[in-house]
Amino acid sequence: MDQQQVITGVMEQVTKRNSGEPLFHQAVLEVLESLDQVLKRRPEYVEAGILARIVEPERQITFRVPWVDDQGRVQVNRGFRVQFNSAIGPYKGGLRFHPSVNQSVVKFLGFEQIFKNALTGLPIGGGKGGSDFDPKEKSENEIMRFCQSFITELYRHIGADVDVPAGDIGVGGREIGYMYGQYKRITGLYGGVLTGKGLPYGGSLTRTEATGYGLIYFLDEMLKANGQTLAGKTVVISGSGNVAIYAAEKAQQNGALVVAMSDSNGYIYDPNGINLGTMKQIKEIERKRISTYTEYHPKAEYHEGFQGIWSIKCDIALPCATQNELDGKLAAQLAENGVIAVAEGANMPSMPEAIKTFQTNKILFAPSKAANAGGVAVSALEMSQNSMRLSWTFEEVDAKLKDIMVNIYAKTNMAAWEYGYEGNLVKGANIAGFLKVANAMLAQGIV
Ligand code: NDP
Question: Looking at the whole model, is its pTM more than 0.85?
């Protein structure tokens, strides 16, 4: 059997075994399609069944999350954790609380996480989890009760050397705090079982900024390697959550003009540059909709609908909201508007047709697996600090983060070049991430 037949066979099995999980299929297909040259050079991966094993989670947990709302009514949500691959370290990956969360979402994110974590160079395996709980419009007490119920089941499956969840959409410092408190209460353990913790109880400086800052460090490397720089460029960023806000902050620090940001209802266009102080106030403190930005800055425009943001003319586009937010048509619009680079802060925000459009139009493209790995990298640094019982300074963690992102760019670019895909960072990230995990799996036998 040649390598293409192996890939087709594994993909067929994935589709059959995981029916009704299109996002998971999409994520697997992209990785498998990158591996034909790897399998040609390393037939031992095929013999050891690495492909068939790597697409199957080591363990999936689904559980009931019952809680009582402020009106005294019983509510039931569904909780998930997928422990995908532990070949290079304990499972590591965020928890997402959003009504759209289901098995397919958690599995696509968990699968991506395996390769992303490998790219960081740190000893962390891949996992992901979450719930279809919607934190929007919930009171503080409801959020706390939900988080406590969620961890009351999940606690038995996680641990500082077993599986270390973090945040993702809908899960920030507040939710991590409630889950950590309940974990500690049940187990009596004060360890690094969750990352993204608050600073007074074991959190790491720079974790809040890490994904956004890391994205810009990666983008900067990609631009530099192609004779460009961020200074003076106009940037559009979708989302206004953790990743988007800190990507905007670092982009501004590097001299770019961020003119638009969004939430799931609509987007703000402020041609003079988004005021990040206001954005943080609205999103991090008041937890309000982005539309209220115009109350502070009447000259800015608010438009309903989150996809319209991609019609704004810019040099650099940073999708930082959610998966599949950019389709082929929106990508073509960006290309027509003369965009020179796209870097993904969200996980898998560009559909396959969008990626193809970027590549045919010679737009520099930084895939999420590589470009947004800064968050999990600093989470792993938080684990190190927890184990050592010490805290590094902001500058120390930031310098390590930058180093890691520069290395990821180099590794990804090099792997693309070595396997005949020069300049294609999608292939490079998939290949470099896969090689590390596959070699570890090979060494550990059929497990
Ligand atoms: P947040 O919850 O902080 O923010 C999410 C942002 O995206 C909000 O502005 C939200 O708008 C918007 N959004 C969410 N879902 C949708 C949707 N279905 N359609 C349109 N807009 C949507 O999440 P994060 O910033 O943490 O995560 C954003 C992305 O980055 C996700 O893809 C996540 O997986 C990825 N990521 C996050 C990391 C982290 O460290 N936090 C690490 C690596 C990747 P609204 O408020 O209206 O819902």
Answer: yes
